[in-house]
Please model this.
Amino acid sequence: MERKIITTSDGSTTIQLVDWNEQYHSIHGAIQEAYHVFIKHGLSLFNQQRVDLLEIGFGTGLNAIITKIESEKSQLDINYVGVEAYPVSQEEVAQLNYIEQLKAPSFRDQFTKMHSCEWEKQQQISENFILTKQQKNFTNINAIDAYHLIYFDAFGARVQPELWTEAIFLIMYKALKDNGVLVTYAAKGSVRRAMQSVGFLVEKLPGPPGKREMLRARKTPIKP
Model:
């Protein structure tokens, strides 16, 4: 499948899958979308010292590096697990301009380390940030009560509908701790219903630039 680097509306780059007309991030602004969906409506909910976080679709590493930057501001310790079936190449990583667009030169080495470190091994990116990259399909996630927060950043249901089903969201529900949160850019009614069917309490929120709405789901403990 043909892949190319494109520039989105806020000046930040992303990868486009040409045959699918699908991007890793929003064409209306990769960085803007990441901050709105995953930081504003996800990470900012947590004030405990340690946050166990699962990303569905590690991809370009954009969500990971902005989480690293924001965790220092909030003094959070992050245990970050990024699952990716098809890792981005080092040649593609070299063409991404996130550090420049974020005006965060002091984080360049950490971003490089996120992409160059070994898969399947826990890596200390910095004193407060541990990263484990796992190369596997999302259906092979078997964690139970392990995460406070999930960034669900899979390719859209238009091109990969199998990633937005009850079966997938049941895996996500089981992986979260009680009161854990899943955030995603998606807002389709079928996605919301799939989340609700496995037990999530789902709310619609204002979406990032270019999208009217997004979804946030919470794992509510079952009352005795």
Remarks:
- DSSP finds seven helices and eleven strands in the chain.
- The mean pLDDT is 96.
